[in-house]
Recover the amino acids of this structure.
């Protein structure tokens, strides 16, 4: 009996010491690896164990060794698009990953409009039945927040082959993007979607980046104040709410900001980068799609630096300093403060001054009365057009929205020129939401016309115009386009 117990103990201890190969959920059956690249594969094993990785596209083997913490990484050369292939990992045990495709891999992220699922899209009834496509693979990162960077995904996060069922629960913008990319490139496409509605940009920036950047410290200071005030604010709110229920207060008390925020701790700085982006790193990407902004409109002046920090730190985390980042400019909504809404859109537009950042306008495809426009195909198509033109060199696919270049005064008119304005035209009888002001800064609706791709604006009562602004207000009536039908970005042009 003692001998049996001793043997059981030995076997139990051996099981503890011996660690089998463990792969992250993103390295699994049905995944897509970026073509013609050196891609990262990683996982854990018993410290000091040699691993042999064999790939079937060229039957080459790669060797690596698990470090003292049991972590290992290997960089594998991929061929041109194709598949399916198999990858075999051999260490203390053997793990095989099947049905691997080689193609293009994009990460999409943001808040509710990027999260918005295909099942809710206006074209769901016609598009979803046609969504069976084994060359499109979907990886929906499960919701997970963390105070520190983690290397594991939320339970249930897996690669799925595109089907009516898997596409229904996937980001609609991302699906339409993948559909167009696959059609135009004729290669497999993998989309990793990490999005969460109602989240500010600081949730998606790493805590390390925030704590090391003095210009990002406002988000930390605000959260520290909310944590300090929470207990007293919550007690006061509960007391006032009870008074309201008893009829002692006529107006229902408003929930304090500290209570509101700490009840939604997924909005805290860093926690979604730590829980949802960090586990994806260092997966080799073709690029990033970013559609976001609503939760930061109230503090729009901080957004430009925050977005620049996000793109910079994500590029570092994914080992590509020139990783393409495509940004959809925030569309209009009736609830936005005018100045803050415009400021945030300009913060997004200004990202195109950075190498490999590309921005497009959405002011013509939103719905002023709906924070979540249900027609996501135009958004996905503009993401795809930008990728196809700028990343894949398909210059015949128009992608650039006209951006104001210069404003000049000619007698009593302002002449406004643009980049990418070939074939500039006004859609309709008159240009909507165009205003002009003189030295006194009082704005009046302008008379506008297009001559030789230049916008000419004036007002009969303004003899010395100084400023023109277009789409500064909350409006979905954008109707100034280039020949490709792409809308002009909002602008404020001033004579200096």
């Amino acid at each position: 009996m003692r001998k049996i117990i001793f043997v059981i103990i030995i076997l139990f201890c051996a099981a503890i010491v011996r660690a089998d190969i463990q792969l992250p959920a993103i390295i699994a059956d049905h995944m897509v690896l970026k073509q013609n690249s050196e891609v990262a594969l990683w996982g854990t094993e018993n410290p000091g164990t040699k691993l042999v990785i064999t790939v079937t596209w060229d039957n080459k083997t790669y060797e690596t060794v698990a470090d003292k913490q049991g972590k290992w990484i290997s960089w594998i050369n991929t061929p041109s698009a194709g598949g399916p292939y198999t990858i075999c990992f051999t260490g203390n045990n053997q793990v095989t990953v099947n049905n691997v495709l080689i193609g293009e891999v994009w990460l999409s992220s943001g808040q509710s409009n990027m999260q918005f699922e295909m099942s809710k899209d206006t074209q769901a009834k016609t598009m979803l039945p046609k969504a069976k496509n084994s060359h499109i693979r979907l990886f929906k990162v499960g919701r997970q927040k963390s105070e520190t960077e983690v290397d594991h995904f939320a339970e249930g996060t897996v690669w799925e082959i595109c089907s009516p069922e898997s596409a229904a629960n996937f980001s609609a913008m991302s699906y339409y993007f993948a559909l167009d990319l696959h059609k135009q490139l004729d290669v497999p496409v993998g989309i990793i979607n990490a999005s969460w509605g109602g989240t500010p940009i600081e949730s998606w920036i790493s805590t390390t980046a925030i704590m090391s950047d003095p210009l990002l410290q406002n988000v930390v200071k605000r959260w520290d104040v909310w944590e300090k005030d929470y207990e007293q604010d919550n007690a006061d709110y509960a007391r006032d709410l009870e008074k309201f229920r008893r009829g002692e207060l006529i107006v229902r008390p408003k929930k304090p900001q500290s209570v509101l925020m700490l009840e939604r701790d997924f909005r805290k700085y860093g926690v979604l980068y730590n829980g949802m982006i960090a586990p994806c790193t260092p997966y080799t990407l073709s690029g990033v799609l970013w559609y976001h902004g609503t939760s930061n409109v109230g503090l729009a002046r901080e957004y430009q630096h925050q977005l620049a920090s996000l793109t910079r730190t994500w590029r570092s985390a994914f080992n590509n300093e020139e990783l393409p980042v495509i940004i959809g400019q925030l569309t209009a909504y009736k609830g936005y403060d005018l100045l803050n809404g415009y400021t945030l859109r300009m913060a997004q537009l200004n990202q195109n001054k950075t190498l490999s950042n590309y921005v497009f306008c959405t002011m013509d495809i939103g719905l002023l009365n709906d924070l979540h426009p249900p027609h996501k195909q135009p958004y996905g198509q503009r993401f795809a057009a930008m990728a196809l033109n700028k990343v894949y060199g398909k210059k015949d696919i128009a992608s650039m929205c006209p951006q104001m270049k210069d404003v000049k005064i000619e007698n009593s008119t302002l002449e406004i020129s643009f980049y990418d304005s070939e074939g500039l035209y006004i859609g309709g009888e008159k240009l909507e939401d165009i205003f002009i002001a003189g030295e006194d800064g009082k704005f009046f609706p302008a008379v506008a016309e297009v001559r030789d791709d230049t916008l000419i604006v004036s007002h009969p009562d303004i003899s010395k115009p100084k400023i023109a602004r277009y789409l500064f207000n909350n409006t979905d009536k954008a109707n100034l386009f280039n020949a490709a039908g792409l809308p002009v970005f909002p602008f404020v042009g001033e004579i200096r």
Q: What stands out?
A: Residues 308 and 354 are 9 Å apart (CA to CA). The first strand starts at residue 32 and ends at 34.
